[in-house]
Specification:
The chain has two domains: 2-123 and 276-293, Rossmann fold, CATH 3.40.50.720; 127-273, Dihydrodipicolinate Reductase, domain 2, CATH 3.30.360. Helices cover 35% and strands 29% of the residues. The chain has ten helices and 15 strands. α6 (127-137) packs across α8 and α8 packs across α10 (299-313). It is globular, with a radius of gyration of 19 Å.
Length: 314
């Protein structure tokens, strides 16, 4: 039984906890927040036995094997280093790090400590993403030439303060653009080798809408993201024998394969369920096998994405 502690008592942590409760061989035993009353309320609502108003105190609990980090982006590095020094495996919300240097530092420490570390890019684990990747690698749409993705919605400064706050690691690329940046290479098994950027800065100083042209090893891609503009959140992969449509690139259950005449050839419809399940199962498999990184979300994925984000946000 792998016992999880959670750092950050928010809504995304709630969804993670609910997924763990559905996973064989794992349980959430503690939650920590800088606000002890918040941690207590969260623990009571999620039936988690222990709560802490201090991260370090939770990390001293020898019964906890692994930690899920659900704090704002600016705290990820600090939280991960504390967990690894305490001997805990780590699953950290995306983006795992805000700079390449931060990512390299924490990955180096995890390897030295022989502890599992993974960025929580749950979208790579979704059954529909696995299906799309298989369609592409099996040549179902031929050679992929072009890809497109849009992902965006309209937030407001009162309810979505973190997105507007540079000091919290806000911005549309860190929050939304990272999905296509880490999914395009996975779908095609190709690395991103170049980027052209159009980045609009909000008066608060963060990027609020962005358009990127990406060069991969054998194709091109365009992606747009925003938290001040509503976008469809869909993706398309175009090949010389057909194309794939992916409604809601970062979540959801469906994918569609079309031929050159726009005729639907095959569709995938997965069950509606908590998407955290799949990445939790992968983490458990790796830990039990003594592996310190995932093949689906390897450290190289995070390092390459951090490098691209830095290029775009300079």
């Amino acid at each position: 039984m792998i016992k999880f502690g959670i750092i950050g008592a928010g809504n995304i942590a709630r969804k993670f906890s609910q997924a763990v409760s559905l996973t064989e061989g794992a349980e959430v035993t503690a939650v920590a927040s800088k606000d002890r009353a918040r941690a207590k309320k969260w623990a009571e609502e999620e039936s988690v036995p222990h709560y802490y108003g201090n991260y370090d105190t939770m990390l001293q609990d020898g019964q906890i094997d692994a930690v899920y980090i659900a704090t704002t982006n600016n705290f990820h590095l600090e939280n991960m280093l504390a967990c690894l020094h305490a001997g805990k495996h780590v699953l950290c919300e995306k983006p795992l790090a805000m700079t390449s240097a931060d990512a390299q530092e924490v990955i180096k420490l995890a390897r030295e400590k022989q502890l599992f570390l993974m960025e929580a890019m749950w979208s790579r684990f979704l059954p529909k993403s696995q299906t799309v990747r298989n369609w592409v690698l099996e040549g179902r749409i031929g050679n992929v030439r072009l890809m497109q993705a849009t992902i965006g919605w309209v937030g407001d400064e009162m309810h979505h303060h973190r997105l507007f706050a540079p000091e919290l690691g806000g911005g549309s690329l860190y929050d939304l653009g990272i999905y296509p940046l880490e999914l395009f290479p996975y779908y095609t098994n190709q690395k991103i080798t170049g980027v052209q950027k159009l980045v609009h800065k909000h008066p608060k100083g963060v990027d609020d809408y962005v358009s990127l042209n990406l060069t991969l090893e054998h194709c091109y891609a365009n992606m747009q993201c925003s938290f001040t503009t509503k976008l469809p959140e869909d993706a398309f992969l175009y090949g010389d024998r057909g194309y794939i449509r992916i409604p809601k690139i970062h979540f959801g259950t469906d994918a569609f394969l079309y031929d050159l005449d726009d005729q639907l050839v095959e569709s995938f419809h997965g069950p509606e369920e908590n998407g955290f399940l799949y990445e939790i199962e992968e983490m458990l498999r790796c830990i039990k096998a003594g592996r310190w990184e995932s093949d689906i979300c390897p450290h190289s994925m995070t390092l390459e994405a951090c490098d691209l984000l830095e290029q775009c946000l300079k």
